[in-house]
Amino acid sequence: MDRALNSDAVNTADTEGHQRWRNWIGFWLLGLCNNFAYVVMLSAAHDILQKQESQNTTTPTPAPNGTNIEISNSSNNNSSRYDCNAVSTAAVLLADILPTLLIKFTAPFYIHKVPYGFRVLVCFITAVVSFLMVSFSSTILMSIFGVVFASISSGLGELSFLSLSVFFHRNVLSGWGSGTGAAGVAGAFLYSAFTQAGLTPQVTLWIMLVVPVILAVSYFFLLEFPSSFPQWRRHGDGHSPSRVVNSQERRPLIEEETDTDEDSETTQEEQEDKHIRPLTFTDKMYIMKGLLKFIFPLGLVYFAEYFINQGLLELLYFPDSRLSHAEQYRWYQTIYQVGVFASRTSLVCFKIRKIFLMSLLQCLNAVLLGFAVYYQFLPNPWVVFVIVLYEGLLGGAAYVNTFFFIREETAKREREFAMAAASVGDSLGIALSAAAAFPVHHYFCSL
């Protein structure tokens, strides 16, 4: 009898272990695919816009007084001491982040009414549309709309998958974080590799249509959901409060349970037997107030991070290096993404509670590189490589640790909303940095 009980216990443990690893891999792939289009659009947009500008240009004569605003190799401002493009690289970033920011600001207040299955289908469709629209675009406006669709897919996906993680074991957060970090490396590398191999940007984007397919397959066929998870209906549609499907979403505000052990979480059946009260708008605003201690440091990290990437790195050019300006900039971005990937994967090894400290260190990076642009005291690009690697490590660590501690320190009934609402922090920081990069770019290029 004891032997049979022990055998059942071992089989149960093996099944749970297999399920956790399968869900970890599923969230890793979701993170990779969700951020992939966002990264690729930042990599591809310049090529697409440059091709269209060359097609639409009827005369090679530049406009007088440096008013030519075409994004092309001929748009450099030769009167500046910097090798400047007429338009900052923040322009494409702004188009890539504003729709995401709008979604993250508003969706937490109504998105719970939309089933997760429908959300994933929207992410899949908008990602496919973005790749096709940019690849077939014949005007700059059409390309920008393609970037907007990529932003919608990425923003809705990030908000939804972070909320979805509360229904699974906490280790899926490290899988999600690692996957989003890998998206930066894989997206930039694969796009560069395909185009370097001789494929046109258009064909390269067609090949990458496989990524939204992987996202849909990972969600619908790889994840192992709780048996009562409502895939195609919203929470609580017609059920009594004591038996609401997916009742993890709503819990009394006075409940402040914490998980002291990974296996101490209440079972799905126990959770369903608890009284359920939907979060009101007032409840959500109260939760948002409590989340500011996470949102503000995360936003500050990303403001400094993307101000460096889109406002300063394009101005850090070393003419004596064997690398061209384009190659230097490409390597800055690639090494930064390597740092992000490493730190977003680090959650499985250690946690860092002091997010605000990482914000301050990232701001110091921005100040240092700002002075480096103005005074030009750095000797070579290799020093910048080390700094941007460190920059990526700080940014990635701030992201995964923020959402880990939100999950740990938020009452269970509030977690789904909190994870979605806090995701606005990084997007707000990125949008503000893109806006700030325009006058900074203009100032330096006018010197």
Structure description:
There is one protein chain. The protein is 67% helix and 0% strand. It is mostly helical and 447 residues long. The protein has 2 domains: 22-53 and 86-225 and 279-445, Growth Hormone, Chain: A (Up-down Bundle); 234-254 and 270-278, no CATH class. Helix 3 runs antiparallel to helix 6 and helix 10 (325-345) packs parallel to helix 12 (381-409). The chain is globular, with a radius of gyration of 23 Å.
User: What is the rounded distance between the termini?
Assistant: 84 Å
Shape by Cα distribution: globular
What percent of residues adopt helix (DSSP H or I)?
Answer: 55-70%
The unreliable regions are 58-77, 236-275
Radius of gyration: 23 Å
Number of helices: 14
Summarize model confidence as the mean pLDDT. 81
For this structure, the CATH topology of the largest domain is Growth Hormone, Chain: A
CATH architecture of the largest domain: Up-down Bundle
According to CATH, what is the class of the largest domain?
Mainly Alpha
Largest sheet: none
Structural class: mainly alpha
Please provide the count of β strands: 0
The tally of structural domains comes to: 2
Helix/strand order:
HHHHHHHHHHHHHH
